[in-house]
UniProtKB/TrEMBL annotation, chain A:
Keywords tagged on the record: Amino-acid transport, ATP-binding, Nucleotide-binding, Transport
Domain ABC transporter: 5-234
Pfam families: ABC_tran (PF00005)
Role according to the record: Involved in beta-(1-->2)glucan export. Transmembrane domains (TMD) form a pore in the inner membrane and the ATP-binding domain (NBD) is responsible for energy generation.
PROSITE patterns named among the record's database cross-references: ABC_TRANSPORTER_1 (PS00211), ABC_TRANSPORTER_2 (PS50893)
UniProt-recorded name of the protein: ABC transporter ATP-binding protein
InterPro entries: AAA+_ATPase, ABC_transporter-like_ATP-bd, ABC_transporter-like_CS, BCAA_Transport_ATP-bd_LivF, P-loop_NTPase
Highest rank taxon of the organism: Bacteria
Family the entry assigns: Belongs to the ABC transporter superfamily.
Automatic annotation (TrEMBL), chain B:
Lipid bilayer topology: Multi-pass membrane protein
Transport among keywords: yes
InterPro entries listed in its UniProt record: ABC_transp_permease (IPR001851), BCAA_transport_permease (IPR052157)
Top-level division of the source organism's lineage: Bacteria
Gene Ontology CC, one term: plasma membrane
The species this protein was found in: Bradyrhizobium frederickii
Keyword terms, alphabetized: Amino-acid transport, Cell membrane, Membrane, Transmembrane, Transmembrane helix, Transport
PANTHER family, per the entry: ABC TRANSPORTER ATP-BINDING PROTEIN, BRANCHED-CHAIN AMINO ACID TRANSPORT SYSTEM PERMEASE PROTEIN LIVH
Protein name in the entry: Branched-chain amino acid ABC transporter permease
Subcellular location: Cell membrane
GO biological process: amino acid transport
Record field: transmembrane: 17-34, 40-65, 77-97, 103-131, 143-166, 186-207, 236-258, 270-299, 306-325
Amino acid sequence: MTDLLKLSGVHTHIGRYHILQGIDLTVPQGQVTMLLGRNGAGKTTTLRTIMGLWQASSGEISLGSERIERRATPDIARLGVGYVPESMAVFSDLTVKENLVLAARDGPLDDSQLDWIFGFFPALRRFWLSRAGSLSGGQKQMLSIARAIIEPRKLLLIDEPTKGLAPAIVMALIECLKEIKRKGATILLVEQNFFAARELGDNVLVMDNGTIVHRGEMAALAADVPLQERLLGLSLETHQ
Amino acid sequence: MTELAANDPLPKPKRDIAPVLLPVALALLVIPLIGSTSSWLTLTAASLAMGMMIFIMASGLTLVFGLMDVLNFGHGAFIAVGAYVATLVLAPFAASIQADSLWMNLAVLAPAALLSMAVSGALGLVVERVLILPVYGQHLKQILMTTGGLIVAEQTLYALWGPQIIPMPLPASLRGSFILGDVAIAKYRVLAMLIGLAIFIAIQLVLNRSKLGLLIRAGVENREMVEALGYRIRRLFLGVFMTGSALAGLGGVMWALYREQVHASMSDDLTVLIFIVVIIGGLGSIGGCFIGAILVAMVANYGGFLVPKLALVSNILLMVAILMWRPRGLYAVTSR
């Protein structure tokens, strides 16, 4: 399996804070890699650094054969990286349709792709002409993910998509992400919901204090309760 | 939000019309205070014309404020430069301007306005690259840089044109008034209203019916996410800054014709009004800016007529009242 994304010795400073302290990780093509860790471990910073929203102070980031650590965010996005931030960041003043029109960079909206998305998130069809700001939290998350997959992307960076959502919506999101995975997408997914992590993840990376402290298969971590407790401070079973 | 069944009709987006009703309510409220219908109509027409000119000058600033988070205290420089550049065209063709032919007047006036917009827009390019670019995200430095830029621009105008006030007479065909019964409405005010309305409609069409407009509206709300979608927002910033500068230049020409004079510090008083309009309209909101400009002009005109002693503070009082009602302005767009 080839690696689509590779970070080698990546350091990121935000102001005087040294957040990422030499990150080494790989994300294999066509797989879902989970990025787990306690709050403040540096997961969101890792995604933002890959996306170019915060500049790496040193180290290398490669997407396929391209070095991207010095590239601007729009250039990284144009290489085929979709980003779903933790805050969802839907454009509240724009309608659902306008949010998706903007995300479809390469031309008009593809009807078949839209139908596929509506299959998972029927609410988006219902609120097509409503302002995104009037959607519920779950619907905003659906829109945020829909925006990232409205066109084919090489790599999806998704930050805690299930945070604060009702269980039924979490299940719908998991099904959607599974379907995206079946289509061959490569995903780096930050998640605190361990049930979702176990359902979706092929591989897992665990972060602590700005470094990767564990890498392996998700199934192996899911089966090893003592390891979970050592790495995450609790077991997956207690956090479903 | 209540979930709808699959076959329910799409809900119509809710429209917030309370701010739109404000100028209407204000205009109706002052009728009994003014007493005379003809005076009320004249004042209302003057308010609308003045409001449109302020809107033209403020519309660029609100987008620059909202989209770029830039406090441009030097916006007034574009207004003055626009007016001075127009004199370069209008002075040599004074005979055509004073000819009693609308087409001959417009043949000089239109190129003068276009040249003013081009020069102000080009000046905007230089200001953005030289003064603003190094201080993005640093409000205090933006204030210092742009205020310094305004002083340099004013002093340069003094050096080039001298300290005297330059007359800028209205074209002959725009002098006088349309008489409707016992009501007289100045022709130039009607033209100002039409131009302001046309620019408002054009901006609204661009913002709401084009992808460029979507990008600007999205950028006002969340610049970072627009970049994460693959759009180079810096270029958009520059385009908006130049357009805002060009509109300020056009507003400068219109204001100079309204006052029939040009001087280097002509924008000093206007800048206060423009900032009030941008703040009460809601940073980045063109609709809010439009209504805010009309409100400011109405308060200035009605207030000046009814309580002249309050005229100086009337717009400050208006701003206080609006912000107490809606702390982020009439139509809040950004979260800033």
